[in-house]
């Protein structure tokens, strides 16, 4: 039964989100894998939280100057998940955000990080260790079902796009006819249409799972180096929810976007990782465009550069306004990943710091 307490809890969550600013950053460090052993672990500490969930991360990097002590870098995020934290616990922390899509909010959840840091694991996971997408589907369909008692009925549509080399590719349909391209258009109500791309009605989590498997096969077709492609392309899964309440006539139109971003590694390993976002231009251009959009929104700038990348243009109606954004920054725990980890953490810290100065610092 749909509990009144649950409704109150969700309202409170939405209010708190608005007070804090609608951008969250969660850092997740994956466990050390056999394949990392050669490189050895990177020194990472989780002050005050041991190996559980906290808000702080401390990284010590050996100095390149012999005889000098290691350099310490401190970071603070809305959440820091140490390697021992499993999928179910991570999902618990995003479940209210997921839920708000049923209340008519537009939500984007990104996974950002270098290749091999755990983005796909976090988003999709594996059959035995399911990630955020399948868990979100279970929850949304179960909640929609429970809301029937209050007169709500929902129509859900799923779509799955890949953005590769600044071009859209539909992973559910046949794609555009020869000589044509997918084009994105936004209508006044904030709806998004993509020419020649499928948005399919889905009746439950199993239907979505079937589509996801189909999409993954489609993605693999023709890609000889699957890993290379997945490290250079973004995957955007979108669930559109259209709710109507037969008793009150109230409508709630929400969207949940779950995005597995391209690898954030710099293409030229020799480039130093600078302090300003502009200096990250050597990484996938659309990742810096995403950072620029989020920063412009958080700083309430009058011009938000949505048009600078296919990714930000696609997601325009779901970024800004009263929509909600969460970024996972995924970190590999091995010593050989230290330089990239530091870059990812700095990028995320900048996105996170955007909100400071609003009411955020007063809200626990
Ligand atoms: P990415 O998508 O960022 O390139 P993956 O999600 O493919 O990285 O993760 C790289 C490897 O690490 C995979 O073998 C994955 O199963 C494993 N992995 C990532 N995160 C975790 C985790 N939290 N727990 C266990 N294994 C993980
Ligand atoms: Mg991946």
What does this protein look like?
Residues 22-354 form the Kinesin motor domain. This is Kinesin-like protein. By secondary structure, the chain is α/β, with parallel strands linked by helices. The protein is built from 9 helices and 15 strands. The protein has helices at 4-20, 87-99, 119-123, 132-146, 205-220, 226-232, 285-298, 310-315, 338-353, and strands spanning 23-29, 43-45, 53-61, 71-81, 106-112, 125-126, 129-130, 152-164, 167-170, 184-186, 192-194, 200-201, 234-245, 251-260, 324-331. Strands 1, 2, 3, 4, 5, 8, 9, 12, 13, 14 and 15 form an 11-stranded mixed β-sheet that branches. Strands 6-7 form a two-stranded antiparallel ribbon. It has a two-stranded antiparallel sheet with strand order 10-11. Strand 6 (125-126) and strand 7 form a beta hairpin. It starts with a helix and ends in an 11-residue tail after the last helix. The chain binds adenosine-5'-diphosphate (ADP) and magnesium ion. Residues 30-31, 33, 113, 115-121, 330 line the site of adenosine-5'-diphosphate. The site of adenosine-5'-diphosphate (ADP) has 12 residues, from helix 3.
What small molecules does the structure contain? adenosine-5'-diphosphate, magnesium ion
Counted beta strands: 15
Gap from first CA to last CA: 30 Å
What are the low-pLDDT stretches, counting only 5+ consecutive residues below 50?
A: 268-272, 274-282, 356-364
Oligomerization category of the chains in this entry: single chain
User: What is the chain-wise order of helices and strands?
Assistant: HEEEEHEHEEHEEEEEHHEEHHEH
Work out the radius of gyration.
Answer: 20 Å
Mean of pLDDT: 85
Helix amount, in percent?
25-40%
- Global outline: globular
Approximate strand percentage: 25-35%
Query: What is the overall number of helices?
Result: 9
For the largest beta-sheet, the strand count, sense and barrel status come to: 11 strands, mixed
Keywords: ATP-binding, Coiled coil, Microtubule, Motor protein, Nucleotide-binding
GO cellular component, one term: microtubule
Protein name: Kinesin-like protein
Binding site for ATP: 113-120
